[in-house]
Specification:
Elements lengths: L25 E3 L2 E3 L6 E5 L7 H14 L3 E5 L3 H16 L6 E5 L3 H7 L5 E4 L17 H25 L2 E7 L5 H7 L3 H17 L5 E6 L3 H17 L7 E2 L7 H17 L5 E2 L10 H10 L41 E5 L16 E4 L4 E4 L6 E5 L12 E5 H4 L8 E5 L1 H6 L8 E5 L6 H8 L4 E5 L6 H14 L6 E11 H16 L6 E10 L5 H10 L2 H15 L8 E4 L10 H12 L6 E5 L5 H4 L5 E7 L2 E6 L2 E8 H14 L7
Parallel strand pairs: 3-4, 3-10, 4-5, 5-6, 6-7, 7-8, 9-10, 11-14, 11-20, 14-15, 15-16, 16-17, 17-18, 18-19, 19-20, 21-22, 22-23
Antiparallel strand pairs: 1-2, 12-13, 23-24, 24-25
Helix pairs in contact: 1-2, 2-3, 4-6, 5-6, 6-7, 7-8, 8-14, 8-16, 13-14, 14-16
The structure holds iron/sulfur cluster.
Length: about 675
């Protein structure tokens, strides 16, 4: 199929026909990457690299969980040397998994490791540069001097990799761009791309091509834009290196999975990505199953129902901009995207049934209390609510039910396009109209265009549902249709794990491109029989399907940075540098701060990389020595090396000092 995407916006083969974006093949030990190879799965150990047996045993657990490459931190030359012992022990136990040395700041460790393992990962933000958070103005001559300095320091590693057949990942992180890059490009996707290209050009000059690239960020929107821009810039320079996908500091549990699925999934949807590392604040063997589930979704995707090609994408895929819409009853316009609770398969008996979607009824005062994650709309299909809708919540009924309602208070109809075209009876406030791509006729678009009561509910039954729904948004933009649009996805029978990953990908991919004035998920059957302990515990806590879906929708909106309803945590996945129990501490901090809506807290394992990787956190809790924590207010150190046992209290005191604290 002919590709008609404008070259200046091109970042994938097609926006309407799924196919993998083809990159060059790179050799990493006995497992090649890119080219026609499947999407490879990898992860990183969290053990102390000097502890050979613990690292070997964790590596084996990761391989058994599905990792095809294993990355191990090498903070200094000692750890780099010990990679040899790790490799030997793995071999003795029958494991040949390619190892990757993770390097920050230490070229000598990289040069040592490149002689031992199959791949080294360097961070162009700190391989040569030290991060001082200085915004120095560089003249062109000074900038060039810096590039020359990088060339001098980096070329020996390239030569060693060439000699030993070692692969390399040039892995840019949004949070650790060099001062030089920051001064010229800011912490933008373009800065991330340029940071990698500077190193890549040196490799190319040395005729070394065994390279993989990554553009990670903890904000999935920034991450997606950076990967897209990287491909666009590589194509302009005639390059096609394979891509390693990941969202950094995603955290653990549900948040970690949602953020990862949103960022990684948005790229996979467009055929981008050759290897995946899902990074969770959990034991590394829990990461591979998530990565595998994400990758497996695209097996056979090519056979999806055809979607009409697009001549020209109406959006800039490298810059966020929200689609303009008019406002109807707090939906659309500048309102945050609304959340629809689907109660079509549940009978509502009393007010208590709404507690699952954020509405708590206080009988003595006859008042409703709303949580920060209270749904905005409730779809009841045919089942009439036996009490008045609480303020803030509007009910949606099928048109055939709505037209006979005696009490229309806060109740609105949803039509098929046919019903909408034929009926004489409509609401004077809001009419929801279900829309599939095949309904996009000129007469329909003209009918709704000037009707300020119509909210479209966009649905799909295409295997490439996101691409199809995006295609509809393109048509709406091109036809200047400003009606608000709620994105609806149906998952008739799905496991809990896949629901989390698929819906985050499907809705998140559109939200980060500025599409969607509301979100709606419908699930008939949620399967949990084969789930692990994490899911079973989670389900036990959340109980009903409606509660699970409501929470999921709010979390997707938060991960896409569209609607903030709770505290944001940026937690590193931990590695051999980690100086405290990250999982336990993150949980402790979460328990005490999870009511602080909108506050961003970073929990980072080490002072070497932590501060750089905290991205745009308001507060940082960073390991700075054995039993020592350093607290940050944004990038500024405010409590240095305080004892770990008081550190969480001190963090809370700091939040209180800043008047960002509220009592739970
Ligand atoms: S911030 Fe965390 S994952 Fe990154 S190097 Fe430090 S301890 Fe390791």
């Amino acid at each position: 199929m002919q590709n008609k995407i404008n070259q200046t916006k091109k970042y994938c083969n097609s926006l309407t026909q799924y196919s993998r974006y083809k990159t060059r093949e790179v050799f990493i030990g006995n497992i090649p990457l890119g080219g026609n190879n499947p999407i490879r799965i990898q992860s990183m150990t969290t053990t102390d690299t000097m502890n050979t047996i613990a690292t070997v045993e964790q590596t084996i657990r990761m391989v058994k969980a599905g990792c095809e490459y294993v990355r191990i931190t090498a903070p200094s030359i000692n750890e780099a040397k010990n990679l040899e012992a790790i490799k030997k022990e793995l071999k003795a136990r029958g494991y040949n998994v390619p190892l990757i040395a993770d390097i920050h700041f230490t070229p000598n460790a990289a040069e040592m490791a490149a002689r031992i393992v199959e791949k080294v990962r360097v961070n162009p933000g700190n391989y040569v540069d030290k991060k001082k958070f200085d915004l120095i103005e560089y003249t062109d001559a000074e900038y060039q001097e810096e590039i020359d300095r990088i060339r001098e320091r980096f070329t020996p590693l390239v030569k060693i990799c060439k000699e030993y057949g070692t692969a390399m990942r040039i892995g840019t992180n949004h949070g650790s761009l060099s001062d030089r890059i920051m001064s010229r490009y800011g912490d933008t996707p373009l800065g991330m791309v340029e940071s990698a290209l500077e190193f890549l050009r040196i490799c190319e000059d040395e005729n070394y091509h065994n390279i993989v690239l990554s553009m990670k960020a903890s904000n999935p929107q920034v991450m997606v834009q950076a990967y897209r821009l990287l491909i666009n810039k590589m194509e302009a320079e005639g390059m096609n290196y394979p891509l390693h996908l990941g969202v950094t500091e995603a955290g653990g549990g549900e948040d970690g999975r949602i953020k990862s699925a949103l960022g990684i999934g948005a790229l996979l949807e467009d055929g981008i990505g050759d290897t995946i590392r899902v990074s969770l604040t959990e034991d590394p063997e829990f990461e591979a199953p998530v990565a595998i589930a994400l990758a497996n979704r695209y097996k056979g995707r090519e056979s999806h129902k055809p979607i009409k090609e697009i001549d020209e994408s109406p959006i800039d895929p490298f810059v966020y901009s929200r689609r303009k819409s008019f406002e109807i009853l707090s939906i659309g316009g500048s309102n945050v995207p609304g959340v629809v609770a689907d109660y079509s398969k549940r009978k509502i008996i009393s007010q208590k049934d709404l507690i699952d979607i954020g509405y708590t009824y206080d009988e003595p005062s006859d008042k409703w209390n709303l949580s920060d994650a209270a749904a905005d709309l409730i779809y009841l299909r045919k089942s009439v609510l036996p009490f008045d809708c609480p303020n803030g919540l509007n009910a949606i009924y099928d048109f055939e039910t709505w037209k006979y309602l005696e009490n229309n208070y806060n109740s609105y109809p949803i039509f098929t396009t046919k019903e909408f075209a034929e009926t004489g009876k409509k609401s004077s406030t809001i009419n929801f109209v279900k829309l599939y791509i095949d309904d996009l006729s000129d007469s329909f678009l003209n009918k709704v265009k000037n009707d300020k009561t119509v909210v479209l509910v966009l649905q799909t039954d295409n295997l490439a549902g996101m691409a199809e729904q995006r295609r509809v948004f393109f048509d709406l933009l091109n036809s200047e249709i400003l009606n608000p649009v709620i994105i609806k996805r149906d998952y008739p029978s799905i496991t809990f794990e896949n629901l989390q990953l698929y819906s985050s990908t499907d809705l998140g991919s559109l939200l980060i491109d500025g599409f969607g004035d509301g979100v709606w998920i419908s699930v008939d059957e949620l399967k949990v029989e084969n789930s692990g302990t994490y899911v079973k515990n989670f389900i036990k806590k959340t109980v009903t399907k409606e509660k699970i879906v409501n929470r999921l929708l709010f979390n997707i909106l938060q991960a896409a940075r569209q609607r903030i309803s709770k505290t944001e945590y940026i937690a590193c996945p931990s590695c051999g540098r980690t100086l405290f129990d990250l999982q336990e501490t993150t949980e402790l901090i979460r328990k005490r701060t999870e009511h602080l809506k909108g506050v961003k807290i970073a929990i980072m394992g080490c002072i070497v990389n932590g501060p750089g990787e905290m991205a745009d956190a308001d507060y940082g809790y960073v390991g700075s020595g054995i039993d020592k924590i350093t607290l940050y207010r944004q990038k500024e150190v405010v409590r240095k090396n305080i004892p770990a046992q008081n550190a969480v209290d001190e963090l809370i005191n700091l939040i209180k000092e800043d008047k960002n604290w509220v009592e739970p």
